Amino acid sequence: MSPASVIIDRTRCESYFQRRSSVRASLKYRRFKVFEAMVQQQLTLYSNKASPFVQSVHIALEEAQIDYALYDIAFGPNKPKWFTEIVNPVGKVPTISYGGPQVPPDQPSPESFKLPESIVILEFLADIKPEAFLLPKDPVVRAKARFIIHKVQETLRSTFPGVLIGRCSFETFLDALKEIQALLPSENGALAVGDHFTIADAVLIPTLMRLDLALRHDIGTFAPGEGKKVHDLIMHGTEFKRLKDYFDTFSKREAVKSSWDEVRPMLSPARIKLNAIPGNRICLLSRSAAIGEAGTASISICLNNQ
Ligand SMILES: N[C@@H](CCC(=O)N[C@@H](CS)C(=O)NCC(=O)O)C(=O)O
């Protein structure tokens, strides 16, 4: 049976069992659950916790309670050969492998389906587990979720790295942030769209976490103190109250916390270049209490290797 036909059966079966409450139906339901566990396809997420794109997929897997294996892939030239040969010739993460025989992640099977690109992967996860509502059922709300993703990609994910390396002004970046805030529902505590955690949340949250992290620690080529000032404006001013509430509420979710690593985003190649700037280096090294000795040691090694 192909994975697709299993998905259709599963959706139909779930609603059939929800409509019935007899003992016979519950026995059948239990048998169906055993069957479902037997047919679940293997899924491996090739990951690197520094990446916001990976974190989006990681969060969605956790939220949808899809079983998966996680395998870390180093950035740069030290990737395992099998990764570019069998999993993703472009060498980027996130990439997932889906289906095929049960094999260890570092011995990927040529028979499994390989899929790169975080947004495409997120849509795929929504398709294989429709009952998790990673995409809303209502076509209008679905479109809203997709529009938020489009805007985060077009505005935030392009201006934020630019701000850190001096290629984008804080003004342009804050305008992008306002545009995103305006797309959120006005009530505090509300998700990006509808009543369920969707792929729109999975895309937005990792970017907000990284901008919080970098600006809070004043990491960027801007004048010392500028990052912290903008952080203060976003996190403590009135202009971004709704966005701040969204960030505070949803960055505490289990799926978000378990996919987050405060140290790794700081160790990505772009950040390491920034860290080489004297002011930033001092700022980073003084964070030892927040990130732990191991993080500080790794950052020092990266700096020494410049
Ligand atoms: N558009 C891609 C971007 C993926 C991407 O750029 N991944 C980077 C990490 S953030 C990567 O794997 N780089 C490989 C490397 O630096 O060696 C997506 O949304 O998945």
Number of strands: 4
Overall morphology: globular
CATH topology term of the largest domain: Glutathione S-transferase Yfyf (Class Pi), Chain A, domain 2
Give the fraction of residues assigned to helices.
Answer: 55-70%
Determine the structural class based on helices, strands and strand pairing.
mainly alpha
Strand content: 5-15%
The DSSP helix count reads 16
Mean pLDDT: 82
Order of SSEs, N→C? HHEHEHEEHHHHHHHHHHHH
Q: Tell me the radius of gyration.
A: 21 Å
Going across the biggest sheet, name each strand in turn. 2-1-3-4
Write down the CATH class of the largest domain. Mainly Alpha
Q: Write down the domain tally.
A: 2
Cofactors and ligands: glutathione
- In terms of per-residue confidence, which ranges show pLDDT below 50 for 5 or more consecutive residues? 1-13, 276-306
Architecture (CATH level 2) name of the largest domain: Up-down Bundle
Protein name: GST N-terminal domain-containing protein
Organism: Hohenbuehelia grisea
Pfam family, one: GST_C_2
Domain GST N-terminal: 41-133
What report would you give on this structure?
The protein has 2 domains: 41-132, Glutaredoxin (3-Layer(aba) Sandwich); 139-304, Up-down Bundle (Glutathione S-transferase Yfyf (Class Pi), Chain A, domain 2), CATH 1.20.1050. It is 60% helix and 6% strand. The protein has helices at 3-19, 23-39, 52-63, 81-87, 118-128, 139-164, 170-183, 199-216, 226-236, 241-250, 254-258, 264-267, 269-275, 278-285, 288-291, 293-304; strands at 43-47, 69-72, 95-98, 113-116. The protein has a 4-stranded mixed beta sheet, with helices on one face. α8 (199-216) packs across α9. The longest helix has 26 residues, at 139-164. The structure holds glutathione. Glutathione (GSH) binds at residues 51, 53, 75-76, 91-94, 117-119.
